[in-house]
Amino acid sequence: MVISPHPQGSVEWLKARLGVVTASELDNLVTPEFKLRTGETPKSYLAKKVAEKLTGDYMDGLSTFDMEQGTILEEEARPWLAMELDRDIEKVGLITRDDGRCGCSPDGIISNNVGVEIKCPKASTH
Asked: Is residue 6 within 8 Å of 93, Cβ to Cβ?
């Protein structure tokens, strides 16, 4: 396991993700029932990952208001969760397998490399 030191959202973090299949995008390859997807979705996703690797350019740069709001609220939620769990939560960048082919960017890690995901959805999602 390799943990990138670059903060999530930074240019270095984006570059580290180039061509890497990530947990947040795994639904492009696998269904909720853990069956391999067929059709155009996995083909276009893998083509995007290959293009990123070859060009060194990130193919998706979209950020919505809701995504930015969630990122802001996550910064408030992390210390609250740490207090509730009575544990330190370490912020991390991209975590990949040793071969670098797939990875994830959890919102934090607590002891024994347990990942933490914090969701701060918009009000209508609640």
From this structure: yes
Contact 95, 103 (CB under 8 A): yes
Q: How many angstroms separate the Cα of 56 from the Cα of each of 3, 50, 106, 123?
A: 20, 10, 23, 37
Buried b (16+ CB within 10 A) or exposed e, 51-81: ebeeeeeeeeeeeeeeeeebeeebeebbeeb
Of 103, 89, 93, 88, give the one whose Cα is nearest residue 1: 103
pTM: 0.78
Q: Measured between alpha carbons, how far is 93 from 107 in angstroms, rounded to an integer?
A: 8
Nearest-5° angle of CA 97, CA 98, CA 100?
A: 65
Look-up: residue for tokens 């797939």?
A: 102
DSSP bridge partners of 3: 95
Q: Residues 73-125: pLDDT tens digits? A: 999 999 999 999 999 999 999 999 999 999 999 999 998 788 999 988 877 87
